[in-house]
C-alpha cells in the first residue's frame, strides 16, 4: 500500500535519480512527532499528577467529571488556599481544549501550570486549570487513523436509523489519515481549484463553473443506506454545549446546555466558586488579540422596548412606540401586587426580551487596549509574523458563556495559526516564470532563459539548494528532462507559483495551508489524490489535507510558541480588579453623631465587574461594613454593597452613625473575588 | 411587661392558629384515598406507598431523587404487567407541585392514581386505558416547597421556589430576612398602618378591603408589605427570603439566564429536582403525553413558551387543539391557551423541555379559579369587570370573595385585620387571605377540582396512539416474486410521534421491517395512492421503512419480495409499542 508522498522532496529526489517515476517515500506525519511534544489525555493527567507531587503544599487535583468515553476530566488547583473550601483570594479559571481538536492548547495549559508555580504567580490568587476539557475528542489525535472530530464519545444515532454509531470513517488507503474521497460524477458540485488542483471548491454556476466531482469523507457505507460515514461514534462537542446562544437540535451541540457531563461539571464548579474573577479559554479563539465580536441582531435593546399589543392596553402604553426599560418599569409597578419588586429581569422575562448578544461597549475598550498591548508584547517576543486570524467565538461556547453569563473578564488564546500566505508577486517582479509557461517551452527556449532567471524561479518554488540553475540546465540539455515534464511535475507539487492562474478560487486559509504544506512540512500536510477502488463508489481518488495541520504546529515549534505566549495569561491575571480601602475620615457632628467617610479604590486595571457583569448582576458585590460596639447607623447601610468600581477608580461611601466617642469602628471590605481589606476608624482620635 | 403581654397573645393565637380551613389531624391514609383534605409531604409519601401496597402488581414506586434539603422525590408507575412491559406502551406522565405552594396539583395526581387503580377491572374505559398505557406520576416535585408550605407560615403565593439560597438584597448574606408570622396565625399576611398621607383608603362596602385614593383625597392607610420584621437591620423588611430559583424556569429548553428570566437558576438543571425528573423522563422515551399541574387561573397551557421559538407545526397544533378544547369542556370555565401569547413568555419551563426533548404533547394545567368562589344570586351578572387585570382582581371580585368566605366557608379563608405592636412600625394591623386560600379550593370544592382535571388527563390518555398492523395483500408477480402489502393503522387521535420530533430528528421514526430466512426484499416503499397503485420506493435498504403514523390514519407500504417461505413483518415505535405479523409466500 502506498504511503502519502512528500512531493517537494520527491520531485528533487526524482530529478537527482534522473527518473520521472514517482517512488514511495516514507514520511512521518508531522503530528506523530517522535519527541512527544503532544500528550494524550491520560499523559496530560499524569503530568498534572507530577506537578502536584512537585509542589504538594500549593496544589490539588480535582476530578470534575467523567466523559462519556470514560475519561476523567481533571483540574489542577494551584494556590495558597488549597486546603480551604472557602477562598479569601480571587481565582483564575482556565479551560483548555474544550473543542478537543487543538492539542497545543492542552500543552499550553500544562505549561501554564508549571509557569504559575515557577513564577510564583499563585501567591495572591488561586489558579484552576483544566488542561483537557474534552478528553474523548482530544484522544483522537493520538489514534490511528488520524481523525479530527470535536465530538465526545456519547453515542448518538446521527442518521436516525435502527442502529447507533454504525457508519463511521475508514482509512481505506491505510495512510493513517481520514481524508476525503472524490468521485467524478456529472451531478457533482465540486471542482478542483484552478490555481491548485489539489484543492477542491464548490462550483459556482453564476461564474459558469460546472461541478465535476462528488466529495465524501473517507470510508465505506457500513450500513448500506447510501450515505457515507454519517453515523460514526461521537456525540457532543463540549465547546458547543454552553448556554449563551445555544440552539436546540444542532448536530454537535447536545440536547441542552450542560447536557454533557464535562460541561455540567464546569457549571457546577464555577458557580460554587465565586472567587473566580477571570476565565481563560485555550483553544480556537483569541480574545487577547481580538475583542469578542459584536454586531449581532438583538431583541434585548433596553433603551428601545416595544410593548406587545396584548399588554399595551393594560399598561396604558402605545404598541407602536418604543420605551426605555425605566419607563416600562414605572408602567408595570402600579399594577404589581404590593411587595412585589418590579426589576429589569421581571420586565425582560415578561416581555420576552431575550439575552444580551453583543459585548458591552465599555468592555470593548479594555479588550481593545489589552489587545494592542498584547500585539506589542508579541512583537518583542519576535512572534509578530502575520498569521491567519483566530476563529470567532462560536455560539454556545465556553468563552461566550463566561463573558455573557458570568460577567467577568474573559480571555482566550489560540497559540498558533498557519502563517499568512505571502502575497503573490507579480510576474515582472520575479522570474516571470510559471509552470504553465515552462510546460509550453521547448528545451532551447528554456535554456535561453539564462541562469539568473531560472535560478530565481527555482528559488520561488522552494527548490533545495543543490538544484542550481546550472544543474537543471544541464539536465535539460542532456535530455534527461524536458520543460514539459518539468512543468507538469512542478504543478503536481502544487506550488503556488506553479501555474499561470495561480491559486485563484482558493481561500486564503487554503492557500496558507498549501503554502505551509509545501514550504515547511515538506508535503506531509496534504495527501495527494490517488485513485482507489471503492467497493460501492467504484473508482475514487482519496486525498486531501491531513487532519490537524491547520491548527497544530510541528512538534518542534511547540516549546518556543508556548514560552512566548503563555506568560501573557499571567500578565492579564495581574490586571483583575483589586479593591482596597484608600482612606477614611471622621467628622463629629456633636452628641455622639459622626459622619464617617471611606474611600474605596480599585487599584488594578480591569473593572469590578465588567459592564456585562453590571448588567447581569451575576458577580457578587463587595460589601463594605461597619462594626463596633454600641454603633447605630442613622443613615446608610451597615452592610453597603459595592456593585461596581471601574479600573483605577475611587468611590466614596459615607454613613451617619451614633456611637460612643471612645469607640473604634472596624471597617471591613469583603469581596468574593477582588480581595479583602479592613481598617479601623477611631472616633475619638483621628480627624 | 409589654413584651410579656405580646408573648401571651402570641401563644394564645398559636393555639387558635389556622392557616385557613381546618385540616383533619391524624388521618389514616388508606386506599381508596380521601379527597376532603390536603396531603402534607409525609402524607403524600404515605399515600404513594399505600397505593402500591394495595395494588402491588399494577404499581411500582421509585425514589427518583433527593431535594436540596434531602427529601425524597417519589414516583409511582401504573402498569399492567399482563399487557406488556412499561416501555412497550405509550407513556402518560403526570406531575404536580413543581411550585411549592401549588399544592392541590399533588391531589390531582393522587386522585388520578387512586381512580385508575380502584376503577381498574370495573370501569371499561379505565380498564382499557390502563391496559394500553403506562402512567408515570411524580405527584410532588418540589418536595421542600411542599414541606415548608404546610409547616411554615406563608402567603398563598410564597414558597414557590427551590431551597437554593440567593442573596436578593446583595448584602453578602443569603436568605437572612424572611417574613415572620408576627401574630402567629400560621399565615403571612399584610401589614397596614393608619396614615392620613397613605395612598389607600377603606372600601365603603367592605372595611377589610382597601382601595387607592383618588387625586384630591386624603388617605387612610399605608401598606407596609408582608408581615415581618427587618431581620438584618438594613432598613428593609422581608427583602431577602428563601431562594429564589424557580424550578419551572430551570429546564434546558430555551433556558435563559437569571437577568433575562427571573428565577432561572445559574444554569439549566442546577436544581436537584429538575435534574432528577429529567433523568427519570429520559429513561422513559415512551412518554408521549405530559400533564404538569400548577395553580392558579383555570388554564390548560401549551407551548411555545416564548415568541422566538416560532409557532408550532400545524400537525401538532391539531392534536393540541383536540385535547385542549376537550379539556376546556371537561373542566368548566378553564381556558386552553398558548403560553407566551395568551399569558406571558417563560424561558426554560418544564413543558418546553418535554415537548422539545421528550417529544411529548405537553400541557400545563393551572388549577383553580378564584372566580369560582361565588356569592351571588342566580340572576346576578358576572362579578368580573374591566377593573381587573392580569395582575389583580377588581374590588368587586374582592368583595364577593369575602362574602364567599363569610357565608360559604364560615370565615375560614380570611384572617381579619388585627392590631399588632410592630418593633419598627409601631401599631399596625395585620390581616388578609390565609395561606390555604386564594389559589386553592376549600376542601369542599377539592373533590370536584381533582376529578374534573383528572378526567382531562384520562381523555388524553384514551387518545394515545393505538397501532395495529396487517398484511392486507399478497400478490404473486412472478414465479419467485411476490408483492406484499402492509397497512399500519393508528386508531386514536394522538400520532405515534410529534411532528416536531420528526422534524428535529429527536429520535428514529417508527420502523417497519420485513424479514425471513429465504426471502430478499427487492424493493419497497410507501403506497402513496392505493387505488392507482403508486408507490414511492426507497433507494436503499428497502426491507426497512421509517415513518410516523398520524392520528386516526393509516400508512401503507408495499414490498417486492423474492423467494418464498415465511415472511415476518414487524412494526416498532418508540412511543406506540410494537406489533408483528407473519405470512407465507
UniProtKB/TrEMBL annotation, chain A:
Pfam families: Peptidase_M14. The lineage of its organism: Bacteria, Pseudomonadati, Balneolota, Balneolia, Balneolales. GO terms for cellular component: extracellular space. Residues 159-172 have a biased composition (Acidic residues). Gene3D superfamilies: Zn peptidases. This is Peptidase M14 domain-containing protein. Keywords: Hydrolase, Metalloprotease, Protease, Zinc. Residues 153-172 are annotated as: Disordered. One of its GO terms (biological process) is proteolysis. One of its GO terms (molecular function) is zinc ion binding. Belongs to the peptidase M14 family. The keyword Protease applies. Signal peptide: none annotated. Residues 38-428 form the Peptidase M14 domain. It comes from the Bacteria. The keyword Oxidoreductase does not apply. Its cofactor is Zn(2+). InterPro entries: Peptidase_M14.
TrEMBL record, chain B:
GO terms for biological process: proteolysis. Transmembrane segments: none annotated. It comes from the Bacteria. InterPro entries: Peptidase_M14 (IPR000834). Residues 1-22 form the signal peptide. It comes from Fodinibius halophilus. Its cofactor is Zn(2+). Residues 375-398 are annotated as: Disordered. This is Peptidase M14 domain-containing protein. The keyword Signal applies. One of its GO terms (cellular component) is extracellular space. Gene3D superfamilies: Zn peptidases (3.40.630.10). Residues 37-389 form the Peptidase M14 domain. Keywords: Hydrolase, Metalloprotease, Protease, Signal, Zinc. Belongs to the peptidase M14 family.
Amino acid at each position: 500500500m502506498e504511503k502519502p508522498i512528500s512531493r517537494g522532496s520527491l520531485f528533487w529526489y526524482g530529478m537527482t535519480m534522473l527518473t520521472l517515476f514517482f517512488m514511495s517515500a516514507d514520511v512521518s506525519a508531522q503530528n506523530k512527532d517522535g519527541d512527544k511534544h503532544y500528550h494524550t489525555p491520560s499523559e496530560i493527567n499524569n503530568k498534572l499528577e507530577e506537578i502536584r507531587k512537585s509542589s504538594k503544599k500549593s496544589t490539588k487535583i480535582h476530578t470534575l467529571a467523567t466523559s462519556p468515553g470514560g475519561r476523567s476530566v481533571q483540574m489542577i488547583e494551584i494556590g495558597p488556599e488549597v486546603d480551604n473550601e472557602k477562598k479569601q483570594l480571587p481565582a483564575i479559571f482556565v479551560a483548555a481544549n474544550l473543542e478537543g481538536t487543538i492539542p497545543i492548547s492542552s500543552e499550553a495549559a500544562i505549561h501554564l501550570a508549571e509557569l504559575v508555580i515557577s513564577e510564583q504567580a499563585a501567591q495572591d490568587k488561586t489558579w484552576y486549570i483544566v488542561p483537557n476539557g474534552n478528553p474523548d475528542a482530544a484522544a483522537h489525535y493520538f489514534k490511528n487513523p488520524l481523525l479530527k472530530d470535536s465530538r465526545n464519545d456519547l453515542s448518538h444515532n446521527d442518521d436516525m436509523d435502527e442502529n447507533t454509531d454504525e457508519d463511521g470513517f475508514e482509512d481505506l488507503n491505510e495512510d493513517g489519515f481520514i481524508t476525503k474521497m472524490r468521485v467524478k460524477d456529472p451531478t457533482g458540485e465540486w471542482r478542483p481549484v484552478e490555481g491548485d488542483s489539489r484543492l477542491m471548491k464548490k462550483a459556482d454556476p453564476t461564474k459558469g463553473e460546472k461541478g465535476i466531482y462528488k466529495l465524501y469523507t473517507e470510508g465505506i457505507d457500513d450500513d448500506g443506506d447510501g450515505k457515507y460515514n454519517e453515523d460514526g461514534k461521537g456525540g457532543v462537542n463540549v465547546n458547543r454545549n454552553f448556554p449563551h446562544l445555544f440552539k436546540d437540535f444542532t448536530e454537535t451541540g447536545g440536547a441542552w446546555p450542560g447536557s454533557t457531563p464535562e460541561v455540567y461539571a464546569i457549571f457546577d464548579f464555577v458557580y460554587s466558586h465565586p472567587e473566580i474573577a477571570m476565565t481563560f479559554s485555550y483553544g480556537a479563539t483569541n480574545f487577547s488579540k481580538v475583542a469578542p465580536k459584536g454586531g449581532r441582531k438583538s431583541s434585548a435593546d433596553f433603551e428601545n422596548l416595544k410593548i406587545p399589543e396584548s399588554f399595551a392596553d393594560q399598561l396604558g402604553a402605545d404598541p407602536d412606540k418604543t420605551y426605555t426599560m425605566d419607563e416600562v418599569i414605572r408602567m408595570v409597578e402600579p399594577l404589581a401586587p404590593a411587595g412585589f419588586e418590579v426589576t429589569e429581569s421581571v420586565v425582560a422575562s415578561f416581555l420576552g426580551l431575550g439575552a444580551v448578544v453583543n459585548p458591552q461597549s465599555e468592555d470593548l475598550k479594555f479588550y481593545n487596549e489589552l489587545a494592542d498591548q498584547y500585539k506589542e508584547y508579541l512583537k518583542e517576543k519576535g512572534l509578530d509574523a502575520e498569521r491567519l486570524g483566530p476563529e470567532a467565538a462560536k455560539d454556545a461556547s465556553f468563552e461566550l458563556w463566561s463573558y455573557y453569563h458570568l460577567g467577568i473578564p474573559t480571555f482566550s488564546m489560540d497559540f498558533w495559526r498557519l502563517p499568512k500566505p505571502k502575497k503573490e508577486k507579480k510576474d515582472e517582479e520575479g522570474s516571470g516564470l510559471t509552470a504553465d509557461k515552462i510546460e509550453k517551452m521547448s528545451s532551447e527556449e528554456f535554456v535561453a532563459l539564462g541562469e539568473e532567471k531560472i535560478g530565481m524561479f527555482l528559488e520561488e518554488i522552494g527548490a533545495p539548494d543543490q538544484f542550481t540553475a546550472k544543474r537543471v540546465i544541464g539536465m535539460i540539455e542532456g535530455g534527461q528532462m524536458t520543460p514539459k515534464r518539468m512543468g507538469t511535475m512542478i504543478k503536481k507539487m502544487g506550488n503556488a507559483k506553479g501555474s499561470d492562474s495561480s491559486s485563484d478560487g482558493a481561500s486564503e486559509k487554503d492557500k496558507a495551508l498549501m503554502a505551509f504544506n509545501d514550504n515547511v512540512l515538506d508535503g506531509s500536510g496534504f495527501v495527494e489524490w490517488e485513485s482507489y477502488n471503492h467497493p460501492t463508489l467504484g473508482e475514487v481518488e482519496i486525498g486531501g489535507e491531513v487532519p490537524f495541520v491547520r491548527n497544530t504546529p510541528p512538534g518542534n515549534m511547540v516549546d518556543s510558541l508556548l514560552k512566548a505566549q503563555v506568560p501573557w495569561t499571567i500578565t492579564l491575571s495581574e490586571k483583575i480588579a483589586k479593591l482596597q480601602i484608600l482612606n477614611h475620615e471622621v467628622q463629629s457632628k456633636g452628641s455622639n453623631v459622626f459622619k464617617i467617610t471611606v474611600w474605596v479604590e480599585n487599584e488594578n486595571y480591569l473593572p469590578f465587574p465588567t459592564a456585562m457583569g453590571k448588567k447581569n448582576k451575576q458577580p457578587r458585590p463587595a460589601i463594605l461594613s461597619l462594626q463596633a460596639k454600641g454603633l447605630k447607623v442613622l443613615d446608610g447601610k451597615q452592610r453597603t454593597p459595592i456593585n461596581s468600581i471601574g479600573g483605577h477608580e475611587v468611590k466614596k461611601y459615607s454613613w451617619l452613625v451614633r456611637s460612643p466617642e471612645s469607640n473604634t469602628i472596624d471597617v471591613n471590605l469583603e469581596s468574593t473575588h477582588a480581595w479583602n481589606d479592613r481598617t479601623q476608624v477611631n472616633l475619638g482620635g483621628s480627624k | 411587661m409589654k413584651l410579656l403581654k405580646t408573648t401571651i397573645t402570641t401563644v394564645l393565637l398559636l393555639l387558635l392558629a389556622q392557616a385557613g380551613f381546618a385540616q383533619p389531624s391524624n388521618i389514616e391514609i388508606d386506599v381508596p384515598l380521601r379527597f376532603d383534605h390536603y396531603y402534607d409531604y409525609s402524607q403524600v409519601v404515605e399515600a404513594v406507598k399505600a397505593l402500591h401496597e394495595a395494588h402491588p402488581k399494577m404499581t411500582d414506586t421509585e425514589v427518583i431523587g433527593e431535594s436540596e434539603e434531602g427529601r425524597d422525590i417519589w414516583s409511582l408507575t401504573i402498569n399492567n404487567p399482563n399487557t406488556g412491559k412499561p416501555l412497550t406502551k405509550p407513556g402518560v406522565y403526570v406531575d404536580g407541585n413543581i411550585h411549592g405552594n401549588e399544592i392541590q396539583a399533588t391531589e390531582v395526581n393522587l386522585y388520578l392514581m387512586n381512580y385508575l387503580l380502584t376503577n381498574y377491572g370495573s370501569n371499561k374505559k379505565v380498564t382499557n386505558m390502563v391496559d394500553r398505557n403506562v402512567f408515570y406520576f411524580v405527584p410532588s416535585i418540589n418536595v421542600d416547597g411542599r414541606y415548608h408550605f404546610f409547616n411554615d407560615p406563608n402567603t398563598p403565593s410564597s414558597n414557590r421556589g427551590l431551597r437554593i439560597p440567593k442573596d436578593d438584597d446583595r448584602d453578602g448574606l443569603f436568605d437572612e430576612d424572611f417574613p415572620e408570622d408576627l401574630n402567629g396565625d400560621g399565615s403571612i399576611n399584610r401589614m397596614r398602618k393608619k396614615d392620613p398621607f397613605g395612598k389607600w383608603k377603606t372600601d365603603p362596602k367592605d372595611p377589610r378591603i382597601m382601595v387607592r385614593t383618588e387625586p384630591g383625597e386624603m388617605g387612610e392607610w399605608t401598606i407596609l408589605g408582608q408581615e415581618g420584621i427587618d431581620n438584618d437591620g438594613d432598613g428593609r423588611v422581608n427583602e431577602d427570603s428563601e431562594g429564589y430559583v424557580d424550578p419551572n424556569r430551570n429546564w434546558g429548553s430555551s433556558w435563559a439566564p437569571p437577568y433575562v428570566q427571573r428565577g432561572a437558576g445559574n444554569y439549566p438543571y442546577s436544581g436537584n429536582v429538575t435534574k432528577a425528573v429529567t433523568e427519570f423522563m429520559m429513561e422513559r422515551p415512551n412518554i408521549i403525553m405530559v400533564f404538569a399541574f400548577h395553580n392558579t387561573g383555570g388554564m390548560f397551557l401549551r407551548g411555545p413558551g416564548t415568541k422566538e421559538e416560532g409557532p408550532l407545526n400545524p400537525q401538532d397544533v391539531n392534536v393540541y387543539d383536540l385535547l385542549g378544547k376537550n379539556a376546556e369542556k371537561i373542566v368548566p370555565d378553564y381556558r386552553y391557551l398558548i403560553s407566551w401569547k395568551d399569558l406571558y413568555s417563560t424561558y426554560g419551563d418544564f413543558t418546553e423541555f418535554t415537548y422539545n426533548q421528550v417529544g411529548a404533547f405537553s400541557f400545563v394545567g393551572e388549577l383553580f379559579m378564584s372566580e369560582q368562589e361565588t356569592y351571588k344570586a342566580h340572576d346576578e351578572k358576572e362579578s368580573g369587570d374591566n377593573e381587573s387585570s392580569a395582575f389583580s382582581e377588581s374590588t368587586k371580585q374582592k368583595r364577593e370573595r369575602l362574602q364567599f368566605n363569610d357565608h360559604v366557608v364560615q370565615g375560614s379563608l380570611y384572617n381579619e385585620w388585627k392590631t399588632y405592636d410592630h418593633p419598627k412600625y409601631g401599631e399596625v394591623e395585620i390581616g388578609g387571605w390565609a395561606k390555604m386560600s386564594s389559589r386553592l379550593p376549600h376542601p369542599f370544592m377539592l373533590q370536584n377540582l381533582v376529578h374534573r382535571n383528572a378526567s382531562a388527563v384520562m381523555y388524553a390518555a384514551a387518545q394515545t396512539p393505538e397501532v395495529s398492523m396487517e398484511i392486507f395483500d399478497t400478490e404473486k408477480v412472478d414465479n419467485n416474486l411476490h408483492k406484499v402489502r402492509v397497512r399500519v393503522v393508528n386508531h386514536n387521535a394522538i400520532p405515534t410521534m410529534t411532528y416536531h420530533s420528526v422534524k428535529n430528528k429527536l429520535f428514529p421514526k417508527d420502523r417497519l421491517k420485513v424479514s425471513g430466512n429465504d426471502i430478499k426484499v427487492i424493493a419497497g416503499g410507501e403506497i402513496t395512492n392505493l387505488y392507482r397503485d403508486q408507490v414511492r420506493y426507497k433507494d436503499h435498504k428497502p426491507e426497512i421503512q421509517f415513518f410516523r403514523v398520524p392520528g386516526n390514519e393509516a400508512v401503507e407500504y408495499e414490498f417486492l419480495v423474492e423467494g418464498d417461505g415465511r415472511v415476518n413483518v414487524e412494526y416498532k415505535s418508540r412511543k406506540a409499542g410494537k406489533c408483528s405479523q407473519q405470512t407465507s409466500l
